[in-house]
Amino acid sequence: MRAGALGVGRYLPERVVTNHDLEKQMDTSDEWIRTRTGIEERRLADDETDTSDMAYEAALRALENAGTKAEDLDMILVATVTPDKPFPSVATILQEKLGAKKAAAMDLSAACAGFMYGMVTAKQFIENAGYQQVLVVGVEKLSKITNWDDRNTAVLFGDGAGAMVLGPVDDDKGILSFELGADGSGGNHLYQGEEGIYMNGREVFKFAVRQMGESSINVLEKAGLTKEDVDYLIPHQANIRIMEASRQRLDLPVEKMSMTVNKYGNTSAASIPISLIEDLEAGRIKDGDLLVMVGFGGGLTWGAIAMRWGR
Ligand code: UT7
């Protein structure tokens, strides 16, 4: 028995904010944003919608997709750096909203690598403690901590949520291997300060290119697989140039890499599940495909997973 995905769901706010909209707000250009990041537009939540509301919408869809009920969940893990409030956790707010009465609930803070940390944590409880259904949600309302006076960062982020119900699947499916890591010495390169998000883009860029490539290769080695076995790469959607470097490291053609950063910007912990679902819905990912998911973020943190899709 192995832990794998039983179902997935996502939520994206309706409001689309294009690069041209931002041009009217700050000293930037569509051309700069597009060529430096690959982003064309992003979704931003309205004032009434908080992080837990987006998590709830994504969770409902994941439960339906998994063919299960909230009452049957054993655990809820929410990866976010933008909780409704410091406590109670988004996971407990979600537990109440869903009516997931028997579920343990906690938040996880690993920034953009949060969904990888969440999936790996779920795997431990499923494979070592007999948990049958664990809901993992990656969700961010980054717009509420964005410094709208800082063009270096304000153009990059978006809001959204992605959810996955994990449980036992067939031996040859599910999470085959993983790598998680952190380097707290890089904490000053990306953090939330008085004014909102602060980032040293160049330092994070260099770290991301190196770490995404290395971790992808490492999880393949741990699973006894090679680059040739990979059907699909789902990198954290931060910047097309970073994603391209990871794709090239795995010698994959363009059509084998997930790409939604153009439509949704960087949604931090939500970006990997949101992108995964886009590809599932489009039929680009099929049962039995070998997926490599890889993320990096503030902390600094990173995480990668090799996963055989299907139940
Ligand atoms: O989830 C993890 C989050 N973080 C990341 O993944 C970020 C990683 N880093 C990056 O993606 C890139 O470093 C950025 C996209 C943030 C920046 O790209 P870059 O090629 O590293 O640009 P740069 O920092 O070298 O900046 C070049 C210029 C600067 O002007 P000067 O000083 O050369 O005159 C900036 O002031 O671009 C300027 N600039 C902008 N211009 C127009 C910065 N932001 C903007 C903007 N519009 N929005």
Structure, explained:
By secondary structure, the chain is an alpha/beta fold. The longest helix has 22 residues, at 201-222. The protein contains ten helices and 13 strands. The protein folds into two domains: 2-169, 3-Layer(aba) Sandwich (Peroxisomal Thiolase, Chain A, domain 1); 174-308, Peroxisomal Thiolase, Chain A, domain 1, CATH 3.40.47. Bound molecules: oxa(dethia)-CoA (UT7). The site of oxa(dethia)-CoA (UT7) has 22 residues, from helix 2, helix 6 and helix 7.
SSE topology:
Blueprint: E1 2-11, E2 16-18, H1 19-23, H2 30-37, E3 41-43, H3 51-66, E4 75-79, H4 90-98, E5 104-108, H5 114-129, E6 134-140, H6 151-154, E7 160-169, E8 174-182, E9 190-193, E10 196-199, H7 201-222, E11 232-235, H8 240-249, H9 261-264, H10 271-281, E12 290-297, E13 301-308
Parallel strand pairs: 4-5, 4-6, 11-12
Antiparallel strand pairs: 1-7, 2-3, 6-7, 8-13, 9-10, 12-13
Index terms:
311 residues; alpha/beta; Peroxisomal Thiolase, Chain A, domain 1; 2 domains; five-stranded mixed sheet; four-stranded mixed sheet; 10 helices; 13 strands; 34% helix; binds oxa(dethia)-CoA
The CATH topology of the largest domain is what? Peroxisomal Thiolase, Chain A, domain 1
Looking at how many chains there are and whether they match, the oligomeric state comes to: single chain
Mean pLDDT: 97
What fraction strand? 25-35%
Report the end-to-end length measured between terminal Cα atoms: 11 Å
Find the count of extended strands (DSSP E, 2+ residues).
13
Structure ligands: oxa(dethia)-CoA
Radius of gyration: 18 Å
Give the C-level CATH assignment of the largest domain: Alpha Beta
Number of helices: 10
Instruction: List the strand order in the largest sheet.
Output: 1-7-6-4-5
- Give the class from helix and strand content and strand pairing: alpha/beta
Shape type = globular
Q: What name goes with the CATH superfamily of the largest domain?
A: Thiolase/Chalcone synthase
CATH-defined architecture of the largest domain: 3-Layer(aba) Sandwich
The ordered string of helix (H) and strand (E) elements is: EEHHEHEHEHEHEEEEHEHHHEE
Major sheet: 5 strands, mixed
Low-confidence stretches: none
Please estimate the helix content.
25-40%
Family: Belongs to the thiolase-like superfamily. FabH family.
Domain Beta-ketoacyl-[acyl-carrier-protein] synthase III C-terminal: 220-309
Active site: 112, 236, 266
Main location: cytoplasm
